[in-house]
Amino acid sequence: MILSIGKGDQTAYCTLVKRHLSINLGFATKLLGNTADAEEVMQEAFTRVWKYSNLWDTSRNAKFTTWFYRVVTNLCHDVSRKRKPQAKIEVLEAMASDEVAADNIIAVKQRSQQVKDGLNEIPHRQRTAIILCYFQGLSNREAAEVMEVSLSAVESYLVRGRRNLAEVLEEDKNNLLKDIG
Fold first, then answer.
1. Separation CA 173–CA 128 (nearest Å)
2. Can you list the residues of the chain whose pLDDT is less than 70?
3. Which residues, other chains included, contact 135 with Cβ-Cβ below 8 Å and sequence gap of 6+?
4. Would you tell me which of 74, 87, 92, 97 could form a disulfide with 112, CB atoms 3.0–4.6 Å apart?
5. Topology classification of domain 91-181
6. How far is Cα 181 from Cα 169, in angstroms, rounded to an integer?
7. CA 89, 141, 29: angle at the middle one, nearest 5?
8. What digits encode the pLDDT tens for the residues 94-117?
9. Considering only CA atoms, which of 17, 8, 21 is closest in space to residue 53?
């Protein structure tokens, strides 16, 4: 499909956008914390697809989805570096059904907010690795390609990120208990 886009096929381009917009918009929103910035990133990312698809070499390039995650990730990093202070990221949404008690819904929302806040507190590369692997479903190897680091680096980011996130969440829990007691 990317080769067709490189030849100016607008139908192929529309199909590719429909196929990849939703999941990548969600990913960008998780990294940036707001939909407006994420939408701008997606617009730029798809503009790059249109502009540079004629240079795509299927024998040399990574899988399109891996390459595109890398483009989106890099654009998000650019936006994050320019922004101060960094906005809270959106990671989890509480899913509630009619059978779930109201107090459970509140607990899930509170925990979701704690995780969102906790992810915002850990270093950017650790957060990116966690989001790619745990929320976007990429393998560690795919995340390494997206982040342009070695597999062992991603694994290290994941280990340190989980540890740092657990420490942040434990600290929040202890602070809450102090406030109550």
1. 24
2. 58-59, 61-62, 83-108, 172-181
3. 27, 30, 91
4. 92
5. Arc Repressor Mutant, subunit A (1.10.10)
6. 18
7. 15
8. 344 444 555 566 666 777 777 777
9. 8
